[in-house]
């Protein structure tokens, strides 16, 4: 077990254009005294100062998380094997490919080793570039090899500093999005402050550095900023084309760096679909965004050697269905309220059915089953029947895939973020509902614009296209975060943007003040600047001492048992040895020793999931002969047993790994408690416990060759 111990020894400039213009001084003869030069100078000054603040905050965030990482592990002082062990589970697997590329004799040989890999899964040759999202490791390794920095910077530091540098991009993108929405860079400053002070809930980059989301989320934030700018009205054609290019590049990089990209962009496509149905976004821009999503994903599919999971994604099926439905149902946005509601219902039904049909057809043609475990998990999670499926239960029992804990909201409330977020969300949602109703009642081009429309004009100010997009975006990703804790980082970072925008927005405050009949432009201006400044002062006063204490706390990486295991493997086993064990540990074995694995944590492949379930029989109630045959079928030479799994106490009964295996095998679980009626006692004791007794039925197949407080390594006999 690893422990930590105390150490020994878009363009913001144009946002001003959307603010209420100030009155011009008029001469008696009717000529306007021009203050154009002064206004332009002020805009340039504001843009310059705001830009400098954004870059400084981004860099400070990078330094902050890098310092926390160093202070937590004493990374600069620990041995290379300890540094590598600190990259836990799938993080270690991804980093191993960067290490492999850096250490290859040439770039060509390194790429060949990835395309024809026979070390990640024993007795199989797989294409790593097709199976996993590791192009970032490939690019970074090539960059490290060609830059003249090898003498000054170790490969591991080049890698982690790049990830910490991406945090600067992330914070700047959040800052710019908030600035674009509110029209003042003070909003961006507040968003960045909230992101930093809520670090526990907005990022985990300092302790899961190579995780795919840490690569992808900065590009996702850039894409949202670009979309927010794209949705501004009266955008010049040249600016629109450049913004579309920025959206495409950000979408491509986001899709290329994270295997769950298709699910995140599906939610984004649903945001666009909802807003388009209610006429809250320009249809032409929505269509371009649909096309950008599909083209970006298809380009990633090509780069990943036509990965079938991408082709069978719901996103491609959904976007294609929406475009087809639009072609068939041409008069969706004409008619009265009831007529529009009927057409809208049929449109949603048609798109849904067509999406499922197209997706099923694609999967049938491609014989695609790579993502079936996700849908089994979702079906069981939302109560559509219990399951004994091992893979689905493996996800259901992990805390990261459970509901968002309530203590998350108390932490977010400490910084006032959650309170402000709810305060902004309510009037924005009300305004959105009213605008949607008005748009349905009065179709495009209608001449019926009476008193109702005139009254609604005041409400539409608070819901420009960019604000409408970010509103539905935060609502849908909020629902995702509430249902699945691991996805909270997509929501909480955007929560910082949305809350800071609302607190600094003339539209939001104008709407609220008009409702209570207290609106004046001067009062709105005072509130939108004074409240953010007060909030910033409060956050600084309350959290600055804690941040300083956090930066001064020094710890040290300490995991002697795993270090001993890795050193033993490197010293006492051949380079071609095949190891079986838990997928989390084996990722570290590959990174630290380069030995061949039977299974690993990248779970998006049906054959690998079946293989992992078979390997995990070492923790089930199976006979030594059965376990031996299973392990030898995958070419296993050594098997590593972990006491932390065999005698697991972290999960409750029914969610321990041994319980999941017992249920899948039809066996009664250990310990006191209920069992399903059709489960039966096993004929054999639990393998991982019984093998330690050195009984003849076990020693004929397995010989213990290494042991410490945590791990037991057994060598398999090679019977003829």
TrEMBL record:
Please state the span of the N-terminal signal peptide per the UniProt entry: none
Segments of skewed composition (Basic residues): 1-10
CDD domains for this protein: Dpy19L3 (cd20181)
**Membrane topology listed for this record:** Multi-pass membrane protein
- GO-annotated cellular components: nuclear inner membrane
GO terms (molecular function) for this protein are: mannosyltransferase activity
Where is this protein primarily located?
Answer: membrane
Compartments (UniProt record): Membrane
What InterPro entries does this protein's entry cite?
Dpy-19/Dpy-19-like, Dpy19L3
Q: Where is this region: Disordered?
A: 1-32
* Family from the record: Belongs to the dpy-19 family.
The protein depicted here goes by the name D19L3 mannosyltransferase
